[in-house]
Specification:
Layout (H helix, E strand, L loop, with lengths): L1 H20 L1 H34 L4 H51 L2 H5 L1 H11 L2 H32 L8 H40 L1 H9 L2 H56 L5 H42 L20 E10 L4 E11 L3 E5 L6 H8 L7 E6 L2 E2 L5 H5 L2 E4 L10 H6 L8 H10 L3 H5 L22 H14 L4 E5 L7 H14 L4 E6 L10 E6 L2 E6 L1 H7 L2 H20 L1
Helix pairs in contact: 1-2, 1-6, 1-10, 2-3, 2-6, 2-10, 3-6, 5-10, 6-10, 7-9, 7-10, 9-10, 14-16, 18-19
The structure holds adenosine-5'-diphosphate.
């Protein structure tokens, strides 16, 4: 019962959602369904009965023709309406729904915190909800009308048959049993078959993806990966064939039983019964026979339509469930959180006894850090030490599980989130380039005419301006080929420098460079960081790197190990201390020297 209740609620939710986006769609879907059932019932019940009865009672030909003409006109008008709605109105409504629903989904997917993208279950629901969401929402509402008007039409057709001959109603039992019992069994078989096929389909989808995604193209050409993939593909296809074979006999028998119960018993049974009563016992008139025979056809189809809609309503309920879970999700850190205004200056940022775990494992442990205005800081440590996590905590992508982060003496949770985030310009190592021009990729917003100088300066500081100048349209050249056929593809290192320019152009008091230079060699990284340092003296900056030499000229260094500060101080002091920092620095220097010798 609980399940049915949820399915009912989900369908109601879909109806409300579509109504909010495009009420016209809801109304026209209802009207076309209603008129469809009306046509069936009117034709099989009223029309047949009236015409045959009029002929039997030898009514005037002209009055019969008038009735036929009025019916034909009404039906022609209904057809005209259907053609107009299906041809002109609904296609436009479909676009409106697509736009409206995607807008809601995009807004929500921007608002949910980063952790949601890492939660497999949530992410699964999210991707399932996004898949053809507009089409499925429209279908859901169409099905709701199918169920509602289907019930009404079934009751009306029952009443009509009952009125003509109460025993004829008994024959309707067959399509009801046929539809409910056998459809349930058939959908159970479908479910089992899909479940057995799922692992094979996943493999097939994976191989397909590998074959068309550019990321794999290099390896496919240079290795035997394609043959390995093809072997998996062939195995998966074989699996699909076997699963299909396993279920075909069962499905064929069930389909045969269904067809007999739904059509044969009612059609043949009712015809024999009607013929007997009309021709042998003379207890039924020709008009009544005509009505019950045409009613049996229409009520069979009405019942088929109704049960199909009901099954679909259950199926759609699952899709709406995913959509609802996603849209009704309450963000732990809502982007629209309206706290106090943090102002435009940063005097001090402090991490006080901060701990944090992604799931169970604690990756930041009782951490204390302090960043003061006008100084440059380096956060160093091995891969996995927790450096990026610190930036994510600072950006409030996550909140600490213990301790607090303070900005100008106040917990950062108190501030308006959007205004707070504006205080930082961050260049991440796992950056993304968008299919936009170089200028837009640097600005990350719509460009104004007077932005050009700032973008050029930022590109110069990042050391990539000369490269951009050599592109066909300079800073207006489109990057990547998603939108523009003549879009330009740059090297990994060049992209990273554009990311650095992104941080420069942003008028934020605190700039963070989280290994945006990992695609560069150590010397190029050192030079880039030096250049940034030089251009940003007296600005508050944080450099993150696992190469210690790159950031040795920062004013203050935090060395991180297993999520906690292992050592801190100025480079020279730390070297003198001969602690973990000096050890790591020396090891890396020896490595670089050895590599240079091998190179030489
Ligand atoms: P660093 O930047 O120093 O290389 P990170 O902060 O990226 O280190 O990661 C610290 C630890 O947290 C690593 O052990 C990493 O595997 C883990 N980690 C990072 N991101 C996630 C995540 N989204 N979910 C679970 N664990 C994560």
């Amino acid at each position: 019962m609980k399940k049915q209740k949820r399915v009912f609620r989900n369908n109601l939710y879909a109806l409300r959602l579509l109504w909010k986006i495009c009420p016209r769609q809801v109304i026209h879907k209802a009207a076309t369904r209603l008129l469809g059932y009306f046509e069936w019932l009117f034709y099989s019940a009223f029309f047949m009965r009236y015409v045959v009865h009029a002929l039997e009672t030898e009514q005037e030909f002209s009055s019969i023709m008038t009735f036929v003409a009025i019916t034909a006109t009404v039906f022609a008008l209904i057809t005209l309406y259907n053609s107009y709605v299906n041809g002109s109105v609904l296609p436009v409504c479909n676009v409106i729904v697509n736009k409206g629903l995607n807008r809601i989904l995009f807004r929500k997917s921007r608002q949910v915190e980063l952790a949601c993208f890492e939660d497999k279950e949530f992410y699964n629901k999210y991707t399932l909800a996004m898949e053809k969401a507009d089409e499925r929402l429209i279908e859901t509402v169409d099905v709701i009308w199918g169920v509602l008007f289907g019930v009404a039409a079934t009751i009306v057709s029952f009443c009509f048959m009952f009125e003509v001959d109460k025993y004829s109603v008994l024959f309707i039992i067959f399509p009801i049993i046929g539809n409910f019992v056998f459809n349930r069994k058939m959908s159970h078989i479908d479910f089992e078959r899909n479940k057995d096929m799922a692992p094979y389909n996943r493999k097939i989808a994976y191989v397909n993806r590998v074959m068309y995604m550019a990321d794999y193209a290099k390896e496919i050409r240079l290795t035997k990966a394609f043959s390995l993939m093809r072997r998996h593909y062939d195995e998966a296809i074989q699996g699909v064939i076997e699963v299909t074979k396993k279920y075909t006999k069962k499905a064929a028998v069930l389909h045969w039983l269904w067809a007999n119960f739904v059509f044969a018993f009612i059609f043949e049974g009712l015809l024999i019964y009607g013929a007997y009563r009309t021709l042998v016992s003379h207890s039924m008139s020709m008009s009544e026979l005509a009505v019950i025979t045409s009613m049996m056809v229409s009520s069979t189809w009405i019942l088929i339509g109704f049960t199909e809609s009901l099954m679909k309503a259950f199926k759609n309920g699952l899709f709406i469930d995913n959509l609802r879970t996603f849209l009704e999700y309450q963000e732990a850190i809502p982007e629209s959180y309206d706290g106090i205004n943090p102002g435009e200056e940063i005097q001090k940022i402090e991490f006080r006894n901060v701990s944090f775990s992604y799931k169970e494992e604690e990756v930041i442990r009782n951490l204390n850090l302090c960043f003061e205005a006008g100084k440059t800081y380096a956060l160093v440590g091995h891969n996995g030490a927790g450096k990026t996590t610190i930036v994510k905590l600072l950006m409030r992508f996550y909140d600490p599980s213990e301790g607090e982060i303070l900005l100008n003496g106040r917990n950062i949770k108190d501030y308006n989130l959007q205004q707070y985030r504006k205080l930082f310009a961050t260049a991440f190592q796992d950056h993304q380039m968008f299919s936009l021009s170089v200028m837009e990729n640097v600005l990350m917003r719509k460009a104004a005419p007077n932005d050009e100088k700032a973008v050029v300066d930022a590109l110069k500081m990042a050391g990539v301006y000369e490269k951009v100048l050599s592109l066909p349209e300079g800073i207006h050249t489109m990057l990547t080929r998603e939108f523009a056929e003549d879009g330009v593809v740059l090297s990994g290192g060049e992209y990273q420098k554009i990311i650095v320019a992104r941080a420069f152009v942003r008028q934020s008091p605190f700039k963070i460079f989280d290994e945006p230079s990992s695609a560069l060699d150590p010397i190029a990284e050192y030079e880039l960081f030096e250049q940034i340092l030089e251009s940003g003296r007296n600005k508050t900056m944080l450099f993150i790197s696992h190469r210690l030499s790159s950031v040795q000229n920062a004013d203050y260094v935090y060395m991180l190990e297993h999520g906690a500060v292992a050592e801190e101080g100025v480079h020279e002091e730390l070297m003198e201390k001969k602690g973990p920092y000096a050890e790591m620095y020396t090891k890396q220097a020896v490595n670089y020297l050895a590599r240079e010798e091998v190179g030489a």
